[in-house]
Amino acid sequence: MTPLTPLPGRDSALLSLSSMLDAARAGRGGALLVRGEPGLGKTALLRYAMGEADGFQVLSGCGVDPEADLPYAGLHRLLRPVARRLPESPELSTRQVEALRRVLDGEADDPGDRAVLLPAALLDLLAVLARDAPVLVCVDDVDLLDAPSREALAFAARRLGGDGGEAVVILLSCGDDDGLPPPGIPVLTLSALDASACAEVVGRVAPVAVAKGVRLRLAAAAAGNPQAVTELVAALTADQLGGVRPLPDPLPPCTRLQHAHLRQVRALPEQTRRLLLIAAAEDEMDTNLLVRAADEAGLDLAALEPAESAGLVRVGPAGVEFRHPQLRAAIYQTAPLARRRAAHALLARLLDAARQPLRRAWHRAAAGLAPDHELAEELETAAASARHRGGYATASAAYERAAELSTGDDGAKARRLAAAARDAWHAGRSARARDLLDRALPTAPGAAARGELELLRGDIDLRDGRASDAYEALLTAAHRLAPIDPELAVRAMMRAGEAGVYAGDHRRFLQVAAQAAPLRGAAVSPQATVMLDYLEALSAIFLGRFGAALAPLRAVLDGAPRIDDPSALIWASIAALILGDNAQGRVMAARAVALARGRGALTMVPKALEFSAYAEFWTGRHAAATANALEGLRAATETGQGNGACHHLAALALLDAIHGDEQTCRLRARTALDRAGLYGLGLPAALSTWALAFLDLSLGRHADAAGRLRGLARAGPGQGHMAVAALSVPTYVEAAVRTGASDAARAAFTTFEPWADSTSSPDNLALAARCRALLSEGGEAEEHFRAALELHAVGDRAFERARTELLYGALLRRRRKRAEARAELRSALESFERLHADRWAEWTRAELRATGEPARPRPTEPDGELTPQQRQIARLAAQGATNREIAAQLFLSPRTVEHHLGNIFTRLGVRSRVELANLLP
After folding, report:
1. How far is it, in rounded angstroms, from Cα 517 to Cα 508?
2. What would the pLDDT profile of 522-579 be if each residue is shown by its tens digit?
């Protein structure tokens, strides 16, 4: 195993310090000044050096503001531990001992030759100490030391090095200040960490495993500053870090880091600070606007030079860039209110109302305090424009400010808060959306306004609450809206129907569809028509009238793509999958994902990815399905959609079962089942049960598999799902037949056969033919198997085709038709190996051996023997990720990762991560 890096992203700095300590042990001293902006890890590097200084005498100190004007206060703090050595040092002259003693006695006067005598005395004292053991001197924040102490340390540091015999290392640190370093001392300048190192710091300082999406967001917010990472992590709960609950919006401030930044800002001239405040007040401060702002404020643009020289800001063609986001926040938040308002008013005067309406309105609003009807309207109009361009987060903030500026009781405030909540939800900020809804509901005038707010509340609950509660809220909203706004009422009923589907309560879905049908005459928009067609189609399916579902399903598939909306494309994807048009289902789902991303509608992305994963799964693209489900799981977690995350976990468990990954399948399925049980989510509960049953089937536990699926068929709302129970019938038929329960298998098949026949899908018809084969004997079974394979040949589901070949080959072997059996089994083995369905490949090899033909090993790439999940773990481990970090990224437990790595090492014939890194490209 490779050792953990003590400070992520600082390998070269750590090497430099270790080399200096090793040189001191060999009698060669040296000095180094570590410099960089606040929070980059200067103190951590000095502490690392002290921790590595075994056998050294360590002297440490730190500059502090209150003592910066006290001569020799820094040396007094540094040398007190060795004060007793002064009488024992005959190598020092009487005058040197007296000079050092005066410092240690706290005498601040400065005799005429003290400026020369004391630095030399310090150097000689360090040399004396080094005769017993190497000496390490560490002084943090040397820029805050009093000037005489700083000069004495610089004098000593410049004279170390070479083979002079002084086994002394002096390490100093300072801020990013042009006043330092003193000439003649080597400098190590720290830069911001890259995103990978910053994300690693998150994992190091967090008390729990951090979800990948959370880790990446915190790393981005910290902008490469490890101190910011530490403060952000400390401000969050375990559930927020683990992705169980959404992050606060906005993220909490990093107060210690802001204070460190402000120390440098306060030292700047007044005109410089005024210009910095103006720049901090505008998110998009380009150079032209800065020049105009300085002129408008009567300031010389050259006043910004001290801030540039100090490295606080950089001005280029793209505009003004602050050294760190926390610096900008500190400058703005600590400025007096009057000055902030003046900066906003100035910027509002400079921005063009036609070309920059939202920015201008925003600054006008920030410059005012009292409610303002006209300004609120201006901000609302600008927010609507931003929303159409996909800026949901920006639009939400603008709507919220417009609500704060609203006057009167005409419902404008509630309307604007509702818009702010809706756009916050679309931007993936569910916690913020709930807060805004809580503020909007008490002021909402009339049934229409309250119905719209209840619709949004139900929509959020559908994704992160109890399905039954979401159903009730959405149905209430629909009834409230029906006489006032039929179009919106249809949307509410559609969402209520989705809540019924999520809960696995098809009776509730049927009730919603029946109540929505009379609205077809009043709600005539293309989107409402598609929703009503969808409700009608699924009602027919739940009632077993599959033929009646075909026309409305095709209407959804035809009408939805004409609507520029991710939800409509998702409905089209579902319709295509039900009809057996898997390719079209993939296209519609992919379009929904792309459209949601393009609009910034982050809450729609996980849902679109659900059906994209299903479509990839049905067509045998298991790697793509796994990637989509993992991405959907991260997106759902990041946007506070616990129910969506549960659904993706269940889908991943089903894929794990296919790949034969028993431990991961059980972990993910149980996690999904726990959430499903708490929130009444029948759909992910059913998928998880199917996954566990399929795993049992692959392990030869046929009775267990049949028992699980029998229970699934009988499960009520919140525990099962009618559609999943129907889709899993071929799995149940196989398990039941193997346990001798053929009559039960025949009864179950009667629910699957009519649906398969109604879709005319080759894949569905092939599965039906396979079920008939399993329920038949002898030549009749062979005939059904051949029919199934002919249908598979024009279908998409390569995995199911291989399973049919395996079952057919096994039948042929039992009937002593070995040559024919081998042909089917070879084809099945090739497919299973390509799809990394390991358990099924093992069954197929066993069948081949039973025919008298040993299964030949196949040539592979270095990681070709691994499942898709194992490949992900192997590559992350090869890149240096810890087990804990891999677990957080892939939503596993560290113990599961450890188990997988053991299997990976065995399969690839390696013994360590170093060998793994050398093996994998």
Report:
1. 14
2. 878 899 999 999 999 999 988 888 889 999 999 999 999 888 888 999 999 989 888 8
| Residue 303 per-residue DSSP state | G
Q: Which CATH number fits domain 445-541: 1.10.3470, 1.20.58, 3.30.1340, 1.25.40?
A: 1.25.40
- Is 223 a residue whose pLDDT tops 70? yes
Residue-wise over 43-73: b if at least 16 C-beta within 10 A, else e? bbbbbbbeeebeebbbbbbbbbeebbebbbb
Q: Is 868-919 in CATH node 1.10.10.10?
A: yes
Distance in angstroms (rounded) separating the CA atoms of residues 807 and 813: 10
Helix (H) or strand (E) holding 559: helix 546-559
What pLDDT does residue 177 have? 62
Note the pLDDT of residue 858.
Answer: 54
- Domain spans of the chain, in order of start: 11-189, 202-252, 258-350, 445-541, 550-640, 642-727, 868-919
Contact call for residues 186 and 11 (beta carbons, < 8 A) = no
Separation CA 240–CA 210 (nearest Å)? 9
CATH tag for 11-189 (out of 3.10.450, 3.30.70, 3.30.530, 3.40.50): 3.40.50
Strands 313-316 and 319-322: antiparallel
The pTM (predicted TM-score) of the whole model is 0.69
**Average pLDDT across the chain, whole number:** 85
Side chain identity at 209, as an amino acid letter? A
Please state, in angstroms and rounded to a whole number, the distance separating the CA atoms of residues 587 and 611.
10
Structure tokens of 618? 């049905």
Cβ-in-10-Å burial (0-12, 13-18, 19+) of 839 comes to: buried
pLDDT in tens, 613-672: 988 887 778 888 888 998 898 888 878 788 999 999 999 999 999 988 888 899 899 999
Q: Contact 680/718 with Cβ under 8 angstroms?
A: yes
pLDDT in tens, 18-43: 999 999 998 889 999 998 888 888 99
